[in-house]
User: Fold these one by one.
Assistant:
Number 1:
Amino acid sequence: MTGVIVVSFAREEDIVTATREARKRGLHIVDVYTPYAVHGLDEAMGLGPSRLSWACFFFGLLGVTLAFVFQFWTTAVDWPLNVGGKPWNSLPAFVPVAFELMVLLGGLGLVFTFFLRCKLFPGKQPVDEFEGVTSNSFVLVVQNTDADTALSAFQDCNAVYVEKRNEQGAA
Amino acid sequence: MQKPDFVLDPPLVAGNKTLLDVTDDVCAPLEGRPTVLWWTAFIAALSLLALGVAAVSYQLAMGIGTWGLNKSVGWAFDITNFVFWIGIGHAGTLISAILFLFRQKWRTAVNRSAEAMTIFAVMCAGLFPVIHMGRPWLFFWMVPYPNTRGPLWINFSSALTWDFFAISTYFLISLTFWYVGLLPDLATIRDRHRFGWRRQLMGFFCLGWNGSYRTWHRYELVYLLLAGLATPLVVSVHSIVSTDFATAVLPGWHTTIFPPYFVAGAIFSGMAMVLTLMLIARKVMHLEDYITVRHVDAMAKLVLTTSCMVGLAYTIEFFTAFRSADFYEVRAFVNRLVGPLGWGFGIMVLCNVLLPQLFWFRRVRVNLVLVWILSLFVNVGMWFERFIIIVTSLERDFLPSSWANYAPTTIEIATLLGSFGLFFTCFLLFCRFLPTIAIAEIKGVLAIGRPHGGTAA
């Protein structure tokens, strides 16, 4: 990587416009850093929908299957229990626990997949830390392919500062 | 800047805050020294907790005989407190998950503290069934693990087993939801400090959050999915709690209205507790611009709605009892009305159905002192509702020879006070160390820097 251009903004409107503009001019957007989830920025950056919902579905399915199989096995196979004269494999009685395990595994599995995918883990030192992005500034990082195109792209977007960096990540 | 035009709704955050103002305002109470008021409240809460620890230790040493239970009233104070605390917790999930799915943007001001309330309330609730076991150190027998007793598995057809799974899942998912919501705010606190324990601690727990939008993009989906999972979960938890009673054949318990009735009651009591806590917190922590009259107004309307639902359930219970022409069922409800605990029924109807009707008037809803007092009444009323449901049915079952009146002992009362001690101790510590308002979420509803002025609610 030859280097990056870091552009900082103070307003949500500006970062969205600037990102859209950068993409229109064919600049490669490395990432955008914002203090909150700005709506419409995913579309401006051209991010597709996340596939994390599949992880949630998979883990939920795993939870519900495990719960039903385990309850059936313990209650009807391993040690059949006569509860109020009902059949051993009385499936409706297994629904509440199966539902709870679906939610539990679905939820926890989803969050752990999210942490893995975004490489978030306890004690991690923040990489590419930009001043104020967790409080009040919005930062756009584009690859420095053609400085003139980049600078002209952000001319009308009220940029607070524009900075060239050789190595990505030096804060 | 062009002044936004608020024709339809007042802004969600008052005082034209900038992004930096929000960060500063929410972090200010965490960074200053604790006030005298905080210390007073904390010492009071800690004393109550100590009282509770003493009461529970005594009960563990001496046995369940230290409670006022008798031959027919095997569940009383303890399970009342359990259902009461679980109910309190449900408002947190309502605000964080259900209102999120309904795109109610006002929730952002209160969701963080309401979720914290959920977690602490579920901790208090979980304590009661465990100490009721008498031998709480064998609590792990509830877990289906391969054991040397056969292996003898737990009974998956029992509502009490469902309850164990429901409460455990509810606690874990609520905690996860809360933690995921906290991540960006922990990073905000980390970045406000160059050195010191806050930077170390928050830096450790914020998992290296750097505000990258690629992460935000996935985070939004995770949050939505967790809300989608938590919404049916909260309904299932209190429905399952109600089946602890509804699956019994006891008159007054054996009804199909219990699940929806309990869920409505839970949200009702929880909203009241949110109001009780929030109205104090906004004053003490100077968050008047964030938790505005508009928020209180919306929550009061929710209290009114659920109050009407609870009132309807009370009426239907009586109607169904008389319509059933079942002698025992009719007798149970006559006893509830004019029996030895008739006074408790009176308190419950007064606090839960009659007094909240005042919330029909806007002047009441915007009078914060009055709202706070009414919320206290609802808390008391909802505690009595559980007590009345549980004890009146057990005191007078099918055989007059087994009728026995119940009165709580001082140990039981001390245990209840102790659970309040635990709840408030945790809540006060939370207010000291973590942002009580979701900083990153409230920034998303500010009127500043966006074309539509952030007015849509």
Note: The two ends of chain B are 22 Å apart (CA to CA).
Number 2:
Amino acid sequence: MRSKSRFRPLRKGDILIIIFFLFFAFFLPKKKGEKVIISVDKTNDFVYPLNQDREIIVKGKLGEAKVVIREGKVRILDSPCPLKICENKGWISKKGDFIICVPNRIIIRIEGKKYDAITE
Amino acid sequence: MRSLNRIAFLSVFTAASISLFVIESLFSTPIPGIRLGLANIFILLALIFFGLKEALLIGILKSIIGSLILASLLTPAFIFSISGTILSTFIMWLIIKSRLPFSLLGISIAGAEAHIMIQLFIAASIFLPGASFFYISPIYVLSSIITGSVTGFITYLIYSKTGRRYGLCVD
């Protein structure tokens, strides 16, 4: 009587849906980034190419932060914020990665060639 | 079903989902935003026993009264909660109606995924445009597989134990 119920756990569809979402979670490949977008206090965006090495001084709300682009990777090298979370995030290089410094109001993110439908 | 019986069951379901929602919100989790989603048990039961309208009613009441209790009405948390509830109820209803070979486990997982997807989408499009929430989704997708199967299994236990006894069962 119980075995006839169509809601009894683990039918074909369940396994399919679990496999689908596992696949979605693990094998979504991260693409290489193309450009670095630095925004301060949500107002102005600075865009830099990722393949040219440079050092940038960004004026945040607390003070000047030093951002380094080197060998296709970005990091915040020096920041006046108290907890230094943004410095400890280290190098980022893949499309969609980001460094956020909340006290200094700086968001650094990496975009690829095309914008996503979601981030558009 | 007799309407008095129906009203009684609907109110018990609503009360149960509200209390589970509130109790669950009091526990902190390692990653913000991840909850077991126990309130979904009663929304899913209402979908099976009654229908879309009743399940949506329970879901919306759960979000509104729950956030009144938690003092989060009309905050982002409330908007996440109510949009996730409505979308996941629709998705679960579609799967139940389509008669695809899904058990309660799969239906619940699909509901949990829909719940987290719409929340990530709203977070990415309204509250923090520009930040790529899409790329932190693997953590949430994985955890909602687990939470979805847990709630789905609990739902099946309740369904199989009580459904026939109270004359609610559909098949």
Note: The radius of gyration of chain B is 16 Å.
